[in-house]
Amino acid sequence: MKKAYVRPLDLRHGSVDLSHGGGGRAMVQLISDIFARAFDNEWLRRGDDGAVLPAPAPGERLVVATDAHVVSPLFFPGGDIGCLCVHGTINDVAVMGARPLYLAASFVLEEGFPLAELQRVVLSMAAAAREAGVPVVTGDTKVVEKGKGDGIFITTTGIGALPAGRELSGANARPGDAVIVSGTLGDHGMAIMAQRENLAFDSAIRSDTAALHGLAAVAMDAALDLRLLRDPTRGGLAATLNEIAQQSGVGIVLDEAAIPVDPQVAAACEFLGLDPLNIANEGKLIAVCPAAQVDGLLAALRAHPLGARAAKVGEVIADDHRFVQMKTAFGGRRMVDWLAGEQLPRIC
Amino acid sequence: MKKAYVRPLDLRHGSVDLSHGGGGRAMVQLISDIFARAFDNEWLRRGDDGAVLPAPAPGERLVVATDAHVVSPLFFPGGDIGCLCVHGTINDVAVMGARPLYLAASFVLEEGFPLAELQRVVLSMAAAAREAGVPVVTGDTKVVEKGKGDGIFITTTGIGALPAGRELSGANARPGDAVIVSGTLGDHGMAIMAQRENLAFDSAIRSDTAALHGLAAVAMDAALDLRLLRDPTRGGLAATLNEIAQQSGVGIVLDEAAIPVDPQVAAACEFLGLDPLNIANEGKLIAVCPAAQVDGLLAALRAHPLGARAAKVGEVIADDHRFVQMKTAFGGRRMVDWLAGEQLPRIC
Predict the structure, then answer these.
(1) In-domain check, residue A342
(2) Is the ipTM here above 0.85?
(3) From A196, B252, B278, B280, which residue has the greatest number of CB atoms within 10 Å?
(4) pTM of this prediction?
């Protein structure tokens, strides 16, 4: 690209200005110096308005998922908005049972956002995409005036391929099925909250943000009649199980004693008066499968680095009220409702 | 969905609050009452984390394009951010030569944004998607605190199918080819600017925002050796032709007298000291084809309601400098450079 009349980007001290969204040379320079360099692949290199890509194999269906990411702060223990947006969208594709193929990314940048932070975010995205084997094939950048945004918002869209005959859906849960989680609950949300509230612990609570398509593949191989997979993000396990109960027309009973929660996360939740069941996760799967396939599924999940603490946490029952309940440690039962409103704003 | 404990949305007086992004019932209600109702289709109705969709026909390739939309004001003569984001993304897919199939939409809403305006935007999106025959199959909604956004930002991602053997690209222009535009230049950008600057004209300048996949299909049928299609949005014709010159390694010479510009747009440009060649369009195609196919292409474009004022505006020449020049009405020549920076912020 010819950029003779644009001063080079000052990646150390420079910041985003409106010219970087203007469709002129400054935007071309920003895209080539930061985005194209980090995401470099054959599709982006063509520089067209969109990416031309190999379609799924014959008989496979397309899966498409999109997510806006507005997490605050942008950088937190265990991750940042860059890897989070890659992981989150890959996970939405993976829980549909699909093989993630491609990512598209669009950026809304606030005037004055430091180029050094932008590059840090983009490099984190690129590293996460490379590690997951899912390239960012096309993108877009807009800039809004100072005070009209908040540093950076990123929307990622994922495209995947779903093999013929595979039908995972929140509507598939049946009475007698088991509910399994792949690990501890609440890590991501509490990592964000602990940073916002400046809570001090022996060691920082780290987000569990991770790409789950590998773990999802393990689950699908291990449980032949797997009903569904979900990633319990906003609203946590409580919201996800209530959605499943609604979609499937069933009830769910959880066993409090069986739910894995990191001790520091539990302590932080108690301190802040939060329930781990409502806290967002970014690296955990919920799986529902027939009772007979629980042992095989748990063994397979636990053999994967992201599923070491997988556990059966409850079962599906017949319930016309579609209630999610929990057997408490004291032997009682309580409703596990989803929250009416907002517990943790801008968690993802 | 059970929403018993959430008060119904007040679509007349209500506004977005943080609870609408929280993953709880308020978000479920917002999505079901405004988004799902407007976009209603079989894929959205499943309520899963992503959409499962038929893949392109055997032999076809995928085309993916994504765009963030931050246009200000949200409503302008001829359109609004809702139809604009549908048209813009369909057009990015269409100029690749692909048949647009599906749209994904993600929303970043600012706390306090009136629900009535949100519904107006969403209904406009839904109408544009329906008219274009390209459904919104999945989406996401986030809410940011008041002062951290600007009402509504929308990222749309388009997925299309590209027939085997079709290869349109900005790299295909060859010396001797003709450059064609499908109609008047600068309408969208000047409609926005005129509203921002409160310029008064006999009649308001209207945005040309429109879905161009039908017109693109006409162009591909009419010119068998069509080199490329582009939609000259941000940066206008000047930026798009400079991109093509760069990608193809050629020069381009425009004929000023042949470039169609609406008289009111020309007057507004003169008043504001702007060049129509730099102004964004949202409903125009640029086509490059062999000289021998110009007449057939122009006749076909002019027979389509969106191409009535199609014209040949220049030709491709051999030029190692990859310059875009213009023969002026006075017989001279001037460089048509792309702007270094920002002329019209938040035009799309």
Answers:
(1) no
(2) yes
(3) B280
(4) 0.95
